Amino acid sequence: MLQRVISIRNVGRFRNSVAAPNPTFTKHTLLFGANSYGKTTLCAVLRSVQSGDATPILGRQTLGTQVAPDIHLLFADGNRRLQNGAWSAPLPQISIFDGVFIAENVHSGDVVDVPNRRNLFRVIVGRAGVALAEDEQRLAEESRGKQTDLTAAERTAQAFAPPGMRLADFIALPADPDIESKIAAQLPLIEALRQADAIRTRPELTPLAIPMTTDELEPLLAKSLDGVGADAQTRLVTHLERHHMREGGEQWIARGVNFIVEDECPFCGRDGLDGLPLVQAFRALFSDLYRGLQSDINQARQAVDSGIGERMQGAVRTLLATNTAAVEFWCRFCQIDTIAFPALDHALAELRRTHELLSELLQRKAQAPLEPIVHGTDLEEAKRLLGAVQAAVDAYNRPVAAANAEIAARKQGTAAGDLTAAQSVLARLQAVKHRRDPAVVQACDAYQRLGREKRDIERQKADVRQRLETHTLQIMPPYENRINELLDLFNADFTIARTGLSYPGGIATSSYQLLINGMHVDLGNANTPPNSPSFKNTLSSGDRVTLALAFFLAQLEREPDLGDRIVVFDDPFSSQDAFRRRQTIYEIMRVANACRQVVVLSHDALFLKQLWEKCPPNDRSAIQIIYHPATGSKLSAFDLDDACRGRAAAELDDLLAFRANGAGNPREIIKKLRVVLETHFRFAYPGAFLADDNLGEILRKIRVGGDQHPAHDSYQSLERINDYTADYHHGEDPRGAAEPPLDQTELLGFVNMTLKVVNALPT
User: Fold this and answer.
1) Residues 59 and 92 in one domain
2) How far apart are CA 297 and CA 221, in angstroms?
3) How far apart are the first and last CA of the chain?
4) Tens of pLDDT along 593-603?
5) Helix (H, G, I), strand (E, B) or coil at 95
């Protein structure tokens, strides 16, 4: 039993809960606190000590402080301390009904998701079922882990198997003591068939060719222009000599003739050029025939470059290297004499010299196209060199031609064979041999062992799952019946039906439907269309809390150690109808009679007062959470009788009735707003207000205290309600002035505001 909260430091609003005197917890402990004062934090503390997990508390460290949470609780069997991020010892015998229980086990927001159903399953099946579910989940996790190992072992073993062979077939290959000789006999056949295919597809040798002769160059070099008079030729030569223009002069003049425009000299501007014999000679010489000759010369130069230039010389080396490689291949299958190009470097040097000589001759011809080049040592030397190179090429090509004849005969004579079939036979023989390698044996044995272990785990899991399902079938029907009995006791207009078991994600999970007006409604999920009936659009928020409370109470009834348990209820009833309030009180007292201790936290003092009256006077205590912005939340003794005495309780009920169905005289209802507010603030903040402070004085004290006053957050709402009610609470005006007219809708808005301020607004 929890006897005292010695201290809660640096957790949420509890900067330091120590207060004097420190209230004592009894078997029936009722704890009053406004919303956001620390009730949820206190439940989190008890849940943390129940599980021994300090992580949720560390996440609630008071904002603005660097000091770690520190908690000291006194239980009947000793202290429990949270220091340095860890509890001294857990206390498992604690059951808590609060928002966390609802969100984890019943619904999150307005939907029931898979985690809710998984957790609810554990609530439904009890400890024996949970043990089976944990065994089933453990075996499922072991199975998944074993599958991971098995998959890795399969990849390792499969890597040893020949491509295309199933691992099972590879593992099943039998040992063969004569395997080596069988492989040795198969290899020559494979080699022959493999080379036969290569013989069919391998190209022959390529003959060498030098695409260049001097046969067409010689007449071109000797060529002049036909049809041009000797006088024009003489005039040109004389002019070039006279002006020292032998080098390139002819081309210069040939180009210049094209720039004569309207018989005017392009250089000096002189007119009448057509009458000059020299100009007439130039025009005769540099006609279309001249330009045609220049074109022939340029084409000849290009032919020399492509036929024996640098690129051709490189191609010769490449072709010879390719043929050399081909000869190495074909020598294995054909009788081929040695094929080599003698003195290749010398031949290429002669080819380069030939290219230089011919290029120079053509350059000279290009500079003076009209001058024939008939006899010259350069041309003769080029002819000689080119002839020597061609002779070497012919000498090289003769054995090439002979080799190609041999190759063609070999290609034709090579018999076709089924290489694929022979390779398949060899592959299987090699697989039989490889299967007995030590590393392969180890990998295959490991794979087979893991497979057996995986199958054994699956058999165990199937057995546990069968027992779990049998247990579930025994537990779920009576549990469903008990839930529905409780829902009936709470006067709910729905029940649950078709409670069952499924395994989404391989984890045991509960399933059920709502039964409303005889119709079965699926719970749905976040993706359920809004126009389809589901949990989120068929149950009110109050119905959802009622359902969760029924689940919790049904679970408690089956706890074998209920007599040793501390049961905590956090706001189990949010002001709804009076019948559910009474039934909730009845169920809490029934639990209190069966457990070691019951702790009820609520923001509704009237609800706690009704519980208080049911508790044995000598074994009950009332505690209040008081909050101040400067010092945080603290626990202190609380007088429920004083807090709920007189007309305030009745008038709060009148406000609730007016809100629910419009009952009551509006002019009487508006006067009750101030009474309810004044009573609430006097008892919710006993250190801040006096017993006779009215609403105006309460507002003044909050205003003076500013944002450091504990009731500061309520100031704006209080001021609005005070302004609204001012004209109605002082009695009739002696001057006979009538009270302002009342708008029912406006009054309802201020009733809601008042109920919200005193934490009594139904949810």
Assistant:
1) yes
2) 8
3) 32
4) 999 999 999 98
5) strand
